[in-house]
């Protein structure tokens, strides 16, 4: 299968590309970021923005049969309006090119934060639930919009096999996602009086899940998860970090200062309330089995990202 | 492994037991020897705890243990809870404990939860469907989550029952805890959702009556405006102002399970008929308990 991966220079996308290549697929990608060693692995990377002409040329010339859209970003990596443009306009461009150039299958790689963190929402979110609590966390609005836009392809482009996958937080060695960034310091801020459950999946297991979704040609919306969720305090402790519980009012004042991440006050809800997903539909469709237990994941992260000895307060 | 109880003798409320079998009394409650350590009972919970002592719902063995140490003391020595008919609760498999609210704050829920942990063999964790506000606030959110007490949503109830858990439901809702002292033995309107859930999941309903909560917290007035300011439905006020529970002896009477046949899609009048049956059974258990309390003169006896 000829698989094109927009956003191929990201951490998980590279691993997926290599895994697919090893499995015998032809793999190429589009990204504005470089991946110097890709060619050595037999993977072609086209430098450019998915929203620009260069991306359409790739679709036209390289003629992918399947696309795994991973060119979305979070507030941790790209702030402001540009993030919205990348996520929403980029997703629209990818689906437009897929429709125009006869792509048979598309995987949209979304996030489980789609469901939002709220005190009165169900603990386990099924795929049928709407996004909640967006008013509290405007940084998530464009990712949610991209997810919903991708899901529209299920009826808008019925000749194409579309799957929207909602992935949980990921860790690797040490990994590149939101959680890995959150845990990078010696001390990790927590909200006093709360300890939400976190769903975490090892990056290698994420790659397995994506490969399965591609090869099984699943269609629909799927939550992807591995081991049962665990409290954030366990993650912090088992990765060798020190949790610093602060009252939410204090923490909201410190956001963006003294080494704390720059987030909206609403984002603290993700440190208060759980976002846990029901993955039964995905398991049934693909037979996915995770390989890394929570203990494995946290040990691997701890060993690959030892606690910084001195780097400011955090 | 430490036990908070003395190593000999029976619990102060062991009078509720010991005649119909080696460990079961005429009223159907087990006598739990004080040496039966709380920690050991938590360890015997048949929940799928992982290597960190956390189950898939986030229930933490450590938090349940800590909560039971506190509630166990209150159950045994402060309220001296008398528990009847615990054998009606299935030892395994799904079930819904459905009872009346008694008392301005959730003393009833905490003591029912403690009864299934202390009086059942093997112990079971009753998982309450709690008011939404509980998960909004710091500390209460954490402890409710770690002990399996989730917001009363149909999604939670259905999933827990499908996982063969034991649910605790008070169909009167917040209106039930708002009962004033003169109405403490009355029942307000029941919701109907629990019956549809029981039918959809084929779960037995174990009715129970909780007595004494209205005397322990004798509410004379509910301050709704103050409650709104604090983010809770209301604040119960007592003759001594604060809703602190008095050491009144409490009773829990579990009744025989009720099993209804159906799909959950029945017309409202059918469901309301089932609800009326459950309500009637709970009312009967309340009257049974009241008669017993009057016989023993307990209604007048406050401690210390």
Write structural notes for this entry:
The complex is a heterodimer of chains A (314) and B (304). Chain A is globular. Chain A contains 10 helices and 15 strands. Chain A has 314 residues and is α/β, with parallel strands linked by helices. Chain A is 34% helix and 19% strand. Chain A has a 7-stranded parallel β-sheet with strand order 3-2-1-4-5-7-12, sandwiched between helices. Chain A has a domain at 2-175 and 200-228 and 276-291: NAD(P)-binding Rossmann-like Domain (Rossmann fold, 3-Layer(aba) Sandwich), CATH 3.40.50. In chain A, helix 2 packs parallel to helix 3 and helix 3 (81-100) packs parallel to helix 4 (141-156). The model of chain A has no long low-confidence stretch (mean pLDDT 91). Chain A starts with a strand and ends in a 10-residue tail after the last helix. Chain B has 304 residues and is an alpha/beta fold. Chain B has one domain: Glycerol-3-phosphate (1)-acyltransferase (3-Layer(aba) Sandwich). Helices cover 35% and strands 12% of the residues of chain B. Chain B contains 10 helices and 9 strands. Chain B has helices at 38-43, 61-78, 107-118, 140-146, 154-162, 174-177, 193-201, 213-216, 224-230, 268-296, and strands spanning 82-84, 95-99, 126-130, 150-151, 166-169, 205-211, 221-223, 235-237, 251-254. Chain B has a 7-stranded mixed β-sheet with strand order 1-9-6-2-5-3-4, with helices on both faces. A two-stranded antiparallel sheet of chain B has the order 7-8. In chain B, strand 3 (126-130), helix 4 and strand 4 form a beta-alpha-beta unit. Chain B is globular, with a radius of gyration of 18 Å. The two termini of chain B are 32 Å apart. Chain A binds chain B through residues 119-120, 122-124, 126, 191-195, 197, 227-231, 234, 238, 247-248, 272-274, 293-295, and chain B through 50-52, 54-58, 60, 132, 135-139, 141-142, 145-146, 150-151, 153, 155-156, 159.
């Amino acid at each position: 299968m000829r698989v094109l991966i927009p956003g191929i220079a990201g951490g998980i996308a590279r691993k997926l590309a290599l895994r697919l290549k090893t499995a015998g697929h032809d793999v190429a990608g589009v990204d504005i970021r470089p991946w110097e060693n890709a060619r050595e692995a037999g993977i072609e990377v086209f430098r450019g923005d998915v929203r620009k002409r260069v991306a359409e040329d790739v679709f036209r010339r390289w003629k992918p049969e399947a696309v795994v859209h991973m060119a979305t970003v979070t507030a941790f990596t790209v702030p402001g309006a540009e993030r919205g443009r990348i996520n929403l306009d980029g997703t629209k461009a990818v689906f437009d090119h897929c429709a125009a150039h006869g792509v048979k299958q598309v995987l949209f790689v979304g996030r489980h934060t789609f469901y939002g963190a709220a005190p009165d929402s169900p603990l386990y979110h099924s795929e049928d639930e709407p996004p909640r609590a967006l008013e509290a966390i405007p940084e998530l609005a464009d990712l949610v919009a991209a997810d919903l836009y991708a899901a529209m392809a299920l009826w808008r482009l019925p000749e194409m096999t579309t799957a929207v996958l909602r992935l949980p937080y990921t860790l690797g060695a040490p990994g590149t996602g939101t959680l890995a960034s959150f845990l990078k310091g010696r001390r990790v801020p927590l909200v006093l009086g709360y300890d939400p459950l976190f769903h975490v999946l090892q990056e290698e297991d994420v790659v397995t899940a994506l490969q399965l979704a591609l090869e099984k040609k699943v269609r629909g919306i799927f939550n992807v998860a591995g081991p049962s969720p665990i409290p954030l305090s366990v993650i912090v402790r088992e990765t060798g970090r020190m949790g610093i519980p602060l009252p939410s009012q204090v923490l909201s004042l410190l956001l963006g200062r003294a080494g704390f991440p720059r987030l909206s006050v609403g984002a603290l809800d993700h440190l208060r309330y759980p976002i846990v997903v029901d993955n039964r539909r995905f398991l049934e469709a693909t037979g996915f089995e995770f390989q890394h237990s929570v203990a494995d994941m946290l040990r691997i992260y701890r060993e690959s990202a030892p606690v910084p000895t001195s780097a400011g307060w955090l | 492994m430490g036990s908070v109880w003395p190593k000999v003798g029976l619990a102060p409320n062991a009078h509720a037991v010991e005649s119909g079998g080696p460990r079961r009394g005429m009223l159907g409650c087990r006598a739990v020897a004080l040496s039966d350590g709380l920690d050991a009972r938590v360890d015997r919970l048949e929940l799928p705890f992982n290597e960190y002592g956390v189950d898939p719902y986030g229930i933490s063995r450590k938090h349940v243990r800590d909560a039971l140490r506190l509630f166990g003391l209150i159950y045994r020595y402060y309220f001296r809870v008398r528990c009847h008919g615990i054998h009606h609760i299935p030892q395994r498999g799904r079930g819904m404990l459905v009872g009346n609210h008694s008392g301005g704050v959730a003393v009833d829920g905490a003591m029912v939860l403690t009864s299934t942990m202390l009086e059942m063999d093997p112990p079971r964790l009753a998982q309450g469907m709690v008011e939404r506000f509980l998960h909004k606030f710091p500390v209460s959110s954490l402890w409710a989550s770690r002990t399996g007490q989730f917001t009363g949503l149909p999604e939670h109830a259905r999933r827990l029952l499908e996982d063969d858990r034991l649910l605790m439901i008070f169909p009167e809702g917040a209106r039930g805890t708002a009962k004033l002292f003169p109405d403490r033995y009355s029942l307000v309107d029941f919701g109907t959702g629990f019956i549809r859930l029981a039918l959809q999941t084929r779960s037995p309903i174990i009715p129970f009556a909780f007595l004494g909560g209205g005397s322990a917290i004798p509410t004379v007035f509910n301050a709704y405006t103050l409650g709104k300011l604090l983010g809770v439905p209301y604040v119960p006020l007592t003759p001594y102002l604060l809703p602190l529970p008095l050491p009144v002896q409490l009773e829990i009477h579990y009744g025989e399970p009720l099993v209804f046949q159906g799909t959950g899609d029945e017309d409202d009048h059918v469901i309301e008929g089932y609800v009326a049956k459950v309500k009637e059974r709970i009312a009967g258990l309340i009257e049974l308990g009241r008669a017993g309390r009057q016989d023993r003169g307990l209604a007048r006896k406050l401690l210390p």
